[in-house]
Amino acid sequence: MSELESCEMRTKIFFASATSGTGSMIRILCRLGGYCERESKFVDRFMLDGRLAELRDSTVPQDGKFHVFNRPIDFNRQTTLSNYDFSLNFRDPRDRLCNMFHWTQSHPAPGVSEDVLNERRRRIAEQGIDSWVLKQAAAEIRYYDNFWWLINELRDRYKLLTYAQLCLDFDGFVDAAADFVGVDLSDELREQVEPERVENLAGNPKWVGNRWSGSDTMPGRYKKELKEETIARLNSTLSEVLSRMAKIDSNYSHLYLEGV
User: 242-259, pLDDT tens digit by residue?
Assistant: First the structure.
């Protein structure tokens, strides 16, 4: 494909919450669409270069490629949305908070010394998961603001690809992903993405859970990891977020609305 042909293609954005599952989704979309996974991580390049302060004033390049935007709070609302095709991935915030707690204990932090990182991990571990997630809950409400803004602005011009669907309807997720990148699914393509199916992740060397602890593969982890009183407080604090998700991702509304 020539450079001119590439630029004439629609630039696609995977707009996602940072949590378990996004890595599998990125690999599926890259494999189906023929994109280079390393080149797709638009936001990661800002993070690794120490340029996060610039992100809110930057737009995704219009290059006919696939880009991952997994810092939703930093999305530039001056972006001309009609120039891009969007897929949106969000996750139950109760699960995401549990996931993030565990990731603070294992995930590397570029640019942070080991001494500083270990001290940060120690302080968070001493708080315990229940205390930590409750302190993060208010910020979690703001975390999704740009999702709601995008959905309102895009109306029906986006493809929904959520963590719940990835885990509970893998084949349906792959169908929707193929539709987003604009390819006809062949048996060969289906076979190539099989390593990302939940049941196969333990044997997938690229699965994040095989590198860092704290990753998970199913909605509802919060019910196993948090105290009942913690869950009740989260249900109250995050009720509007959960209700919005239930309405948008309606096939899994019962999961978002449990206890709300």
Answer: 999 999 999 999 999 999
Burial (0-12, 13-18, 19+ Cβ within 10 Å), 154? middle
Distances (CA, A) of 31 to 35, 37, 188, 190: 7, 8, 11, 10
User: Residue 152 has which token pair?
Assistant: 């309102």
Contacts made by residues 169-174, CB under 8 angstroms, sequence distance 24+: 169/251, 170/196, 170/197, 170/198, 173/28, 174/28, 174/32
Widest Cα–Cα separation across the chain: 58
Instruction: Supply the angle between the helices 228-237 and 93-104 in degrees, to the nearest 10.
Output: 120
- At 203, list the tokens: 């044997």
Structure tokens at 244: 């919005």
| pLDDT tens by residue, 104-130 | 887 777 777 888 888 888 998 999 999
Tell me the pLDDT tens digit for each residue of 196-230.
999 998 898 888 777 767 778 899 999 999 999 99
Q: How far apart are the first and last CA of the chain?
A: 50
> 121: closest CA among 138, 136, 101, 139?
101
Q: Are 206 and 27 in contact (CB under 8 A)?
A: yes
In DSSP terms, which residues pair with 89 in a beta bridge? 16
CB 1: neighbour CB atoms within 10 A?
9
Query: 93-104 and 114-127 helices cross at what angle (nearest 10)?
Result: 130
